[in-house]
Amino acid sequence: MPISALQLFKHLPQTNCGDCGYPTCLAFATQVVVEGADLTNCPHLSDEAKQLSGTIREQQQQGVGRRRDKLAIALKFLQEKVAPLDFATLATGLGAICREEEQRPYLELTYFGQTVRIFKDEVRYPAGTAENPWDAILLYNYIASQAKRPPCGQWIKFEGLPHSVSKSKTLHRLQRQLAAALSGKKELLAQRALTLGAQPASVSEDADLQFIFRPLPHLPLLLIFHDAEAEENFAAEAHFLFDAQVMDYLDLESLLFLVERLMDYLLEKY
Ligand code: SF4
């Protein structure tokens, strides 16, 4: 039996220290099993985990558990979940428009400022867009939520969302990465935020910058940024806040992925 990402994860230290270059041990396990990353990139492997390296290398060489297969399976599962749904009924609740092409219904919505068309079996992006299979998974997850309530306008911290304690460390790491990358560059941050269609906000009294992003129509993210102040020995800080009803639309994992995607755009990694 091949070793799955979850099985490997159980043998990792589960400290999410980030020394391997990935934000969590689970992300690293997935990269090893699905992408062929080197297991020894984790400098904290137990002897037990080291013993798995031979088997892992073998299955990597045989192409077992390749990323493409995994993503295709996840995508197919979501498409099957979405297939029986009535797009016309769901459109308003998702902030989308339901249209048809040759009797195939699709939802048209804005994703990171771009108009995408989501059919039950394919996603169409504007010409020239670099496709990332995770985007399709996120979009089908959003639709599969069948959410009906628009955002309530009340901002809460990630820790305020149900069952978020174990994942908040990941968000904190992402926030630190963003703050470090944009320290001393608030003009650049403002420029990129406006390019993405974000709106300036006035929620925090002492922030240097604050913007509301709408990566998906009913999924606002508030970014609060304090730039570094050398004289006061104050490092830059970035904090994301979420609409109190965000869990109607996405689970915590997908939400973290959405934050990572937003960071990709802000740091121009895409
Ligand atoms: S280096 Fe990576 S895999 Fe190893 S403990 Fe840290 S986060 Fe987990």
From TrEMBL:
4Fe-4S domain sequence ranges: 1-59
Keywords: 4Fe-4S, Iron, Iron-sulfur, Metal-binding
GO molecular function: 4 iron, 4 sulfur cluster binding; metal ion binding
One Pfam family matching this protein: FeS
Annotated protein name in UniProt: Fe-S cluster domain protein
Lineage, highest ranks first: Bacteria, Pseudomonadati, Thermodesulfobacteriota, Desulfobaccia, Desulfobaccales
